[in-house]
Amino acid sequence: MKAAKIDWEEVKRRLAAADAAIALAWEPDEAEMARRLKMRAALVARENEPEQAVEDSFEVVEFMLDKARYAIESRHVRDIYPLERITPIPCTPDFVLGIVNLRGEILSVIDIMKFIGIPLREAVDFSRFLVLVRGDMRFCILADAVAGTRTIRKADIQPDLPAPMEADHVHGIADGQLVLLDADELMQDPRLIVKEEI
């Protein structure tokens, strides 16, 4: 049985005709081109909105101290733990409460209210550790409770601070009552650096 002879010239003509038809079908007219460009512009504008929002806001971890609300940028909060036994260390500043062993890592515990100059109104029932990290710097601060994370718009931050709070360690106030701590300034404070001396 002989195979049918293929007319290659006819095949080439048909393929060329199909290519031309496809190209014609995909080529939009002016109205279609204008509609597509408008749609693309709208999509690009929507894609850029989240980037702008990220630049204008930041995420914080909100916590309670002495019935007041505080927050610190979440990028500096590595972990949150239930309160464990704090071992006091002699000859340390009054804002250093001691050290704690968290899963084999020894970290100092800082009383953030004493550190930024806010006297306690009453006894505080601490229940949580917040582990703060910036580069090689790591330490814990205490909180009565942790409310969770939220996003703060930079435009909503007011620079007015209640006395006698140290402005160097605070961004400002949001929502009228939320004190935003400046973790970068806090963790660069030379008072937190241990200097060994003989």
In short, what is this structure?
Helix content is 28%, strand content 33%. With 198 residues, it is of the alpha+beta class.
Give the secondary structure arrangement, pairings included.
Elements lengths: L7 H19 L3 H26 L1 E9 L2 E6 L3 E6 L13 E7 L2 E6 L1 H4 L12 E7 L2 E7 L1 E9 L16 E5 L3 E4 L1 H6 L10
Parallel strand pairs: 2-10, 5-7
Antiparallel strand pairs: 1-2, 1-8, 3-6, 4-5, 6-7, 9-10
What does this entry look like structurally?
The chain has 2 domains: 8-55; 58-192, OB fold (Dihydrolipoamide Acetyltransferase, E2P) (Beta Barrel), CATH 2.40.50. Strands 8-1-2-10-9 form a 5-stranded mixed sheet. Strands 3-6-7-5-4 form a 5-stranded mixed sheet. It contains 4 helices and 10 strands, in the order H-H-E-E-E-E-E-H-E-E-E-E-E-H. Helices cover 28% and strands 33% of the residues. The protein has helices spanning 8-26, 30-55, 112-115, 183-188, and strands at residues 57-65, 68-73, 77-82, 96-102, 105-110, 128-134, 137-143, 145-153, 170-174, 178-181. The chain is of the alpha+beta class.
